[in-house]
Amino acid sequence: MKNKYKNFIALLLIGFLLLPSIVVIGGNKDRSGEAGAPELLINPWARSAGWGGANVASVRGLESSFVNVAGIAFTNRTEVGFTHTQWLVGSDINMYAVGFSQKLTETGRMAVNIINMSFGSIPITTTDNPEGDIGTFNPNYFMFALSYANVFSNSIYGGLTVKLISENISDMSATGFAIDAGIQYVTGVKENVKFGITLKNWGTSMSYNGDGLSIRTLLPGTSSQFTLEQRSASFELPSQLLIGGAYDILFQKDYRLTVSGTFISNAFSKDQIVGGLEFSLKDLLVIRGGYTYESDIATSKSTTIYTGPSFGATINVPFNKEIGSGFAIDYSYRDTNPWNGIHSIGIVLDF
């Protein structure tokens, strides 16, 4: 009875993924620029960013909360992580991610992630003061994500994330909610064949509110003032459907080469195909690289800042091999045009 219940939940989660995906796949390049909250598409974690998010089927642990929440189900005990990203080096934009994942029961796992994106200080200008010199303001993106993942069987893993999104400038703000859901399927004699599907950023529309939309003016022909409040147009979230597969090529006992690929269907931009390789040397040094393709990415008609290539590495330092505790240092780089690329460096503690 218990297994039947778990299978029912797994099928329900798959159904949840497939039904909204009809709307997601209906998107096309002509809708580019119509969505808001673009920060939801930025991977804040160095490890998975190193191969462009090609690891939808094979991602494990804390970073799964961004790529495919189902991977949180593989958390062994407790993971704590922090990553700093220099977004488009030279633009003074920084992203910080901190989070932890925790094993709750034999089958249940949970994770919490907090992501902040800052843009530095920007001079305040007005119609009367176009040159500024009246102060600065600091735009800010903030996201809080709560995730739960479950082991449904030896082959099926699934999870769900609820996200609170907040955007702020000096006198206006917008708030919204979104849901991510994902499934991973593992098979093969050595459990080296993996498939994954995830629906991301399916949620409410957002709109800005605040004093920045209010104007004090005079009634025509009188000296009486009144406040005119403008309405901000609402915008949708950049939803995605990702479908991926991965295959582990095992060499002896301590060497692994993973070949991975992901198809990304974007509701508000061009679809993408991401391929990647990851080589693990005794799980002490892991090197990875990826390439993201979309139509016209290498031409002047490109609608993305990415040029395609990405790469990264992880150094694992074990504390106790028997229980698998230790810490890891992750680094990744993604090439962009314009600006000077995206650098991420982070640390993950496993204890």
Topology:
Layout: H1 2-25, H2 46-49, H3 64-67, E1 78-87, E2 93-103, E3 108-118, E4 122-123, E5 136-137, E6 140-151, E7 156-168, E8 173-187, E9 193-203, E10 214-218, E11 225-229, E12 240-251, E13 255-266, E14 272-281, E15 285-293, E16 306-320, E17 325-336, E18 342-350
Antiparallel strand pairs: 1-2, 1-18, 2-3, 3-6, 4-5, 6-7, 7-8, 8-9, 9-12, 10-11, 12-13, 13-14, 14-15, 15-16, 16-17, 17-18
What would your notes on this structure say?
With 351 residues, the chain is mainly beta. It has one domain (2-350): monomeric porin ompg (Porin), CATH 2.40.160. Helices cover 9% and strands 50% of the residues. It has helices at residues 2-25, 46-49, 64-67; strands at 78-87, 93-103, 108-118, 122-123, 136-137, 140-151, 156-168, 173-187, 193-203, 214-218, 225-229, 240-251, 255-266, 272-281, 285-293, 306-320, 325-336, 342-350. The strands form 3 sheets. It has a 14-stranded antiparallel barrel. A two-stranded antiparallel ribbon has the order 4-5. Strands 10-11 form a two-stranded antiparallel ribbon. Strand 1 (78-87) and strand 2 form a beta hairpin. The two termini are 34 Å apart.
Brief summary:
The protein is mainly beta and 351 residues long. It contains three helices and 18 strands.
